Amino acid sequence: MDPDNDNSKEITQEDAWALIKAYFQQHGLVSQQISSFDRFLSYTIQDIVAENSIMSIVPEKQYAPGSNENQDRDLRYEIELGQVKVNEKPRFKEYDDKYNVIFPNEARLRNLTYQTSVYVEVTKRDKVTNSKGVEEVLEQSKEKEVYIGKVPVMIKSAFCSLNRIENEYEMKECFFDQGGYFIINGSEKVLVAQERMANNFVYVFQKKQPSKFSWVAEIRSQVDASNRPPNQFSVKLYSKGQRRAGGSFSGGKVFGQTICATVHYINQDIPIAILFRALNCISDKEILDKICYDQKDSHMMEAMRASLEEGTPFLKQEDALSWIGSRGAAGAVSREERIRHARDILKKHFLPHISTEDHCESQKAYFVGYMVHRLLSAHLGRATEDDRDHYGKKRLDMAGALLGMLFRNIFRRYVKEAGRVLKNCADRGQPLNISKAFKKDVITDGLRYALATGNWGTNAAGEVSKTGVSQVLNRLTFASSLSHLRRLNTPLQKSGKLTKPRQLHNTHWGMICPAETPEGQACGLVKNLSLMAFVSVGSTAERLKEILENYGTENLVSIEPENIHNATKVFVNGCWIGIHNDAEDLISNIREMRRSLFIPKEISIVRDITNREIKFYTDQGRVQRPLFIVKNNKVLLKKSHVERLQSTIKSQAMDFNEALAEGLVEFLDVEEEETSMIAMNVEDLQNRQYCSTYTHCEIHPSMILGVCASIIPFPDHNQSPRNTYQSAMGKQAMGVYTSNYQLRMDTLAHVLYYPQKPLVITRALDFLHFKELPSGCNAIVAIACYTGYNQEDSVIMNQSAIDRGFFRSAYYRTYCDTAKSGEHFEIPDVTVVGRRHGDYTKLDMDGLIFPGKNVLGDDIIIGKTALPRRTFERDMEYGNVIKKDDSTALRHSEKGIIDSVILTSNEDGDNFTKIKMRAIRIPQIGDKFASRHGQKGTIGMTYRQEDMPFTQEGITPDIIVNPHAIPSRMTIGHLVECLASKVACFQGKEGDATPFQDVTVEHISNDLHSLGYQKRGNEVMYNGWTGKRLDTRIFLGPTYYQRLKHMVDDKIHARSRGPLQILTRQPTEGRSRHGGLRFGEMERDCMVSHGAARFLKERLYDVSDCYSVHVCRECGLMAQANVRQQKYLCKGCQNNTDICQVGLPYACKLLFQELMAMQIAPRMLTND
Amino acid sequence: MSNIFEESKTRAFIKNEGVDYNTTVTTQELPLEDFAENLQIDVISLNDEDITFDVKGIDPAFANALRRIFISEIPTMAIEKVNMWQNTSVIPDEVLAHRMGLVPIKVDPRLFEVKGKNEDHNENNCVQFNLHIKCTRKNTPEAQNRENDILPENDEALFNHASVYTSDMKWVPIGTQEEKFKNTPIRPVYEDILLSKMRPGQEIEMELMCEKGVGKTHAKWSPVSTAYYRLLPDIALKEEISGEEAQELKSKCPMNVFDIEDTGKLFVKNSRVCTTCRECIRDEKFVDKIKLAKVKNHFEFTVESVGMYKPEEIVTEGIKILKEKVKCWKNTMKGMEEDEE
Ligand code: SF4
């Protein structure tokens, strides 16, 4: 480094923002979704096809009389699926068979699926085994592009049409849209990342006593990125005094704690010595070598003694194998069979992540030894129990991984089915029709079904294994969409009372937002990624293994056990591959490779010095984040780099990738983070006294927050639950949810008239485009008691401000309908049956309402008629078909103006219409508002400007909140925001409210003081009615407020009379059905205890399902009655005189009749 | 002691913390002549947009009545009905209509009547504007190249009427209005209020009907952006302050009320600008050294006009309305007296 160069000065915390900006420019906010999907379409699909590539079809021998041709030959067809080709642009086949490239907006509007075709190269080989038993190929034919189905395409992925378009807005896309979701049948779907435990990890747990075992070491072993369910294997240490149950040994009594192992497919626990012998470690020394790396470690040797003694009767490998084999599923017959069976299990199903090939016993033995070593270390108190909730041991399945799982399942089924069809063909001696065998819709529909419903895959029993994986993208506010795309879900444990997995864990730092999680059932199970967190997409370990070998890693097969103790064990993806004698050297070499991007940036390198282990991870789903690299307590990123980052000149500029390649920053995952020393601030590095061996430095501590929490100003001044509340509330705020909202047809949307960017802003908001698409207004807020109309979390709002457009919003609702066959859009005339009571006159000629029309509740907006289900040709001819009305009316509680109408055709070529209605929502009493600090409230009263209190500068507040909202909630951030906003307002500058910086309240106060205001933001005010000066000073200033989607107009509901349910004749339920208000059990109890019997009868009977029947007094059953002619008859009794009328609820009458249908006679005995 | 008592009749003292329970004003009955004699109005500043004046000798009820009338009871003309013939701009009809309503109109409302409920628009109760504007692409090569469209700052250079301003509103005289307002043509107060942004092909055509109304009904009819008053501060030093303490006190006041003489003595330079922030008496040691008070019957009014009226007109109109109200009240009282008899 050039010492004279002034530019290579140390950076300040401020300069970090240049790098953060570069990061977001390159990665955006949804790169975890997109990169994962890209990997799926570019590689995973090919891998999955390759896994199931070869189909072999052996036709059943047909002894057709007469044709003897093929009898002598053993014909066999082989179908090989080769290269996969994915169409680059999503296309759509119109009903008239025309193909068009489609763009996302068209898919959204026309309710299409945004998907692309996948083709596979198919090679067919006719093979014959000749007389010498050698197979020869008779004929080989290749079909280049066999269509197998369509795969939904993620918006803005490498396969999206938008990729080739320079300006998204030309394709009617939002300028700020980040993509990362799918469009299925017109609705936007997000694949929410699923969190799971990582495979191939050894966990050591202590069992809660009393229990049979005291310690357990377990591993869920799975071959890299395969779909097979992981195989559980565990090594267990018995508790003191516990004997093996049902021990069938002849070896006599064994004293001490023994160790046994549980292997998949073996019904009984295997004593560890037997397992070792089965793995060809015969002598006790061999076994001990695998476990106690240190020959002098007498404690561990002693701990093994009992287990070794237990194994003495089985001294040969065959004996051990036979023991294992006899406890397998087959229970096998002969000794040979048993041994073969055991060998097979040990090869294929035992620790498959190490290998499933032959000759891997010694490697597996080493691994079992390692597990026992870990177990005993814990037992001897040298190591502690593993932490289940450690985030390094969690993996996130992003969109690509989820689709991969699904595709693998469907594809397997698909190939099997195709094989069956081909076999049928072959059996009949017909030529194989490949394009017919590969059905068109299986894959397309399978994927689409899963994405449309969120039911992800089915288990063996055909039940849905996961639900809610795919969700409709939340489009209420731009921030809510972003946050939705970065959401994580932890499946299972929904009802479990276990609190540990829900709690914030230390290792969440920088990866998971500490504030943003829902309240209630899913609290802590649904999480959100922090802003700079990234999820690894995975790469193969092969190349890394090669490199490790070249750098002197000794393979396990070829080492002497004595050497292990003094060397470092090397693991790749949880699999122990060898040892290395110079860990420091190896680590620094590989690290340099990663820092120069010679190997992928996402590979993690973990050195565990105390246990002498080095672990490498290359798998997908690890959460990572970038950090500054520190050497000699100095950040490597210098001022000169910052200048390049900020430079606009192409040749000098540096982007984030270059910063990675130059080794200035790197990605660390949670495991690696644990072995690093990370400084919180650039300034902390100077404090050598505290630490002089920092390896990394936090880019900026505020990056630990997620999307929603980043909106909060001064979150570091708030009580933490308030930040959580705001994170949930920010998603309900109205704003401009996307810049193309006029071109979209969302079922429900709110758009704020005059959104403002906040006066006080966190730096992270720049990257969330919150300033461009804001969701609130800067309101002048006074914290005061004024009249009493702002008690209990209500607020007083300035009516004059509302008149001037304060917090007005537009509300859009889209109705849609399809005219399937037999249905028509038209104005239903009077001959049509089943006409609604709404207004049909507003319809245009084509049966649809037209834009600009004022509509009220129950007005018909889509006129549609349907032919009766069975129409006879004759009727059609004479034109006396009676059509049924199937029109759509506006929701009865809404009114507005028709904004736009589209008429188009859908996938099946049916006419299809969408109608968007717009209404204006002016703030009124009852509407809900909230600041950015979890302080929500409804309007309790509106006062005009002259009634509002005013300052000596004539300022009247827009909102008055009650001071009681503050002390118990401790939202100091709210007050600080107000103060900082006031300063920002007078200085004409944006206020900085980024957390964890050194702005203090005192700074802000002093600024305000120098501007000629009271330091703490208090002002003298005058009462608007009396004109007198208020006795106290009022805390007043601008605060950013949000209008929430809950508004009285959507909730107001009353009913005097109205519709009844058909079955019970009781009033309907719910506002949308104009229902009654429930007089429930508690209300009933209240009336009973009050003794208000008459009132109770009125509520429960007269006003509900009042009914009367006639009862025969002879039999007590219901009789026939003709009230008009005054004729009554009980058929059974032939009684037409002794009949009385009984009043009872209709539901009761219904019950009686249902009982009668069940051969139970409920008799009503009436006495006068 | 009695001095303080006397003073507390006219002064509200301010404590260094907590609530001041001494501002409640009780005015004794005052004969009209005395009132007239005591009343004093001085205009402090006046320009096209606002007026500041002192009123001495009234009580808050009086001052506040005036203030409330300024804000909400002086009638003006504002756009109330919009006939929208065409609107293909991005702003929805209702929003645009609402925006139009807020445009201040330069016309003397005194020459118009309030439109009755069943009345039609006529020359005496209505002013009409038309706004018809269409955005087109300019004929320059840059404008024809669609790639330049992305940058919002370009739009004025590329398109005709990319922004719609109030200057695009055309007054349409009704009946004899043309003659009547020959010398003072009716127009929006400001020509440069941005109404909408447009892109080529978009068009707005509407008729705007102004009616007379008051701010009580809707804030758009309010002739002032705000009208307010404050009590005149009265600051004095109870004892001499000099040296370091003087410096300290001087820097404490954000409004620079205090200054230091050459002799090093502190003096009150300008008590009027005091905002009563109490910063000067926050420190215990100054509490007893400074008298911080407000004159109870001395109001400093500020009226900020939106532009339909001149600021001084608002004051006189307001007083007229107050007078009307008093008269009306007097008549009612009289009526009651007669009823009693
Ligand atoms: S109250 Fe505030 S403004 Fe007034 S003199 Fe004291 S410090 Fe200055």
Structure description:
The complex is a heterodimer of chains A (1168) and B (341). Chain A has 27 helices and 56 strands. By secondary structure, chain A is α+β, with helices and mostly antiparallel strands. In chain A, strands 21, 27, 28, 29, 30 and 31 form a 6-stranded mixed sheet that branches. A 6-stranded mixed β-barrel of chain A has the order 34-48-35-46-45-52. In chain A, helix 2 packs parallel to helix 10 (399-427), helix 7 crosses helix 8 and helix 23 packs parallel to helix 24. The radius of gyration of chain A is 37 Å and the shape is globular. The mean pLDDT of chain B is 89. In chain B, helix 3 (60-72) packs across helix 11 (311-340). In chain B, strands 1, 2, 3, 14 and 17 form a 5-stranded antiparallel sheet that branches. In chain B, strands 4-13-6-10 form a 4-stranded antiparallel sheet, with helices on one face. A two-stranded antiparallel sheet of chain B has the order 5-11. The longest helix of chain B is centred in the last third of the chain and has 30 residues, at 311-340. Chain B has helices at 2-10, 32-38, 60-72, 93-101, 141-144, 155-158, 177-180, 243-252, 279-282, 284-287, 311-340, and strands spanning 11-13, 40-46, 50-56, 76-87, 105-106, 127-134, 136-137, 159-160, 163-165, 170-172, 187-188, 194-197, 203-213, 224-237, 258-260, 266-268, 290-305. Chain B is of the alpha+beta class. Chain B has 2 domains: 2-73 and 225-238 and 289-340, RNA polymerase, RBP11-like subunit (Gyrase A, domain 2), CATH 3.30.1360; 76-220, RNA Polymerase Alpha Subunit, Chain A, domain 2 (Beta Complex), CATH 2.170.120. Chain B is flat and about 75 Å long. Chain B is built from 11 helices and 17 strands. At the A-B interface, helix 21, strand 47 and strand 50 of A face helix 3, helix 4, strand 14 and strand 17 of B. The structure holds iron/sulfur cluster. Iron/sulfur cluster (SF4) binds at residues 235, 252-253, 255, 257, 274-280, 292 of chain B. The site of iron/sulfur cluster (SF4) has 13 residues of chain B, from helix 9. Chain B: Belongs to the archaeal Rpo3/eukaryotic RPB3 RNA polymerase subunit family. Chain B: InterPro entries: DNA-dir_RNA_pol_insert, DNA-dir_RNA_pol_RpoA/D/Rpb3, RBP11-like, RNAP_Rpo3/Rpb3/RPAC1, RNAPI/III_AC40, RNApol_insert_sf, Rpo3/RPB3_RNA_Pol_subunit.
